[in-house]
Amino acid sequence: MGNTVDEIRAMARRAVADTRITDIHTHLFPSSFGPNCLWGVDELVTYHYLIAETLRWLAMPYDAFWALTKREQADLVWRTLFLEHSPVSESCRGVLTTLGELGLDPECRDLNEHRAFFQKLDAAEYVDRVLDLANVDSVVMTNDPFDAGERQCWLDGAARHPRFHSALRLDVLLNSWETAASQLRGWGYDVRPDFSGRTLSETRRFLKDWLARLDAKYMAVSLPPTFAWPCEDARSRLIEDAVIPVAVETGRPFAMMIGAKRQVNPGLRLAADAVGRSGMEPVENLCARFPDAKFLVTMLARENQHELCVTARKFRNLMVFGCWWFLNNPSLIEEITRMRLEMLGLSIIPQHSDARVLDQLIYKWKHSRAIIAEVLADKYADLAATGWKVSEEEIRRDAHDLLSANFWRFHDA
Ligand code: FIX
Ligand code: ZN
């Protein structure tokens, strides 16, 4: 007797819901990092995804919006996206899912009533409560040593939280070398913009110092659609002679997040970035040239997803992860997850949250889990049709691989 489709669906839903997640890319911080740790309803409502949607409805100059206090911005977003129109976008729906899961009344249209709930909370306690509610075991932060405020927290020895791992973010180093070089010099590393002298060995020293200070699980960079490797630019050289040697020596993966077109409309600030299609050659070239290096790769363009799967079939040192940013929408998560399972089986990391506000973990994972469970159930149902019977234990093993173990196995390899 095979499994019935209903049994399979129920098992897949239970397994995915019960699995404790390692969220491999977020922008979250524990409360010991002070103002870097964002939480609460005003932060949820002023998420840059929602600001972009709000400003589409308004005629006000962007600067006038930014001149408002956070609370005033939140009031304006709430009025525009939740009261004057129905909140059907994924980011709006996410706010309502989050409030509902926290036990608040999602029907309530008065933002001040929601605010009253958050005012009573203690940040440190709330962090663990949210992680538990989202059934997230731990998150990986995005840690930028070039960000003055965050850097100071690390140098001051801000307390670590056992559920917050770190990742060393290298956007300034790899995307703005002149700026990075002058900063590094100021911090006592003997580097020069023209790469003369000890520049590369000193850059490696910087990377190793910060990997150790952070106990970072990987290094990461976001890259434009025009990213090329190899080529005659500073980034190409730094990847080859600094990042990869340190990644191999320390066993840390290098995460490349490819396809972000930055600041296409700068007035929108954090909401100003867009997407562009990328070539797959740099990923192929790097994976082939450095078989001992481990690459975590996500791409922002929907059009790149199929070829990224094909590339991952060719290189076991390439781990595909997440439905990043503009792809983190139900229809696209479903399409992409289905394709990845069909082309790569279970050897993927299907999702990360990219949460910037702590409470977003609740909705991002609730929404993603639901889709991952249905897609998995469809695949097990297809197996059942062949006569292959899956046990609940096997489904739980697979869900654990997807949502946690694949990352740690790749990290430890
Ligand atoms: O570069 C990144 O890590 C992006 O995820 C963010 O910077 C982006 O603004 C974002 O929040 C996407 O979800
Ligand atoms: Zn991110």
What would your notes on this structure say?
- The chain is an alpha/beta fold and 413 residues long.
- It has a single domain (5-38, 136-412), classed as Alpha-Beta Barrel (TIM Barrel), CATH 3.20.20.
- 53% of the residues lie in helices and 9% in strands.
- The chain contains 18 helices and 9 strands.
- The protein has helices spanning 5-18, 41-45, 48-57, 62-67, 70-83, 90-101, 111-119, 123-133, 148-155, 171-175, 177-186, 199-214, 234-250, 281-289, 305-314, 330-344, 360-386, 392-412; strands at 21-23, 136-140, 164-169, 216-223, 254-258, 260-261, 274-275, 295-299, 318-320.
- Strands 1-2-3-4-5-8-9 form a 7-stranded parallel beta sheet, sandwiched between helices. The protein has a two-stranded antiparallel ribbon with strand order 6-7.
- β2 (136-140), α9 (148-155) and β3 (164-169) form a beta-alpha-beta unit.
- α1 (5-18) runs antiparallel to α17 (360-386), α1 (5-18) packs parallel to α18 (392-412) and α6 packs across α17 (360-386).
- The model has no long low-confidence stretch (mean pLDDT 98).
- The structure holds D-fructuronic acid and zinc ion.
Overview features:
two-stranded antiparallel sheet, binds zinc ion, seven-stranded parallel sheet, single chain, 9 strands, 413 residues, TIM Barrel, binds D-fructuronic acid, alpha/beta
Distance between the termini: 39 Å
The tally of beta strands, per DSSP, is 9
Major β-sheet, in short?
A: 7 strands, parallel
Question: What's the overall average pLDDT, rounded?
Answer: 98
Domain module count? 1
Identify the strand order in the major beta sheet: 1-2-3-4-5-8-9
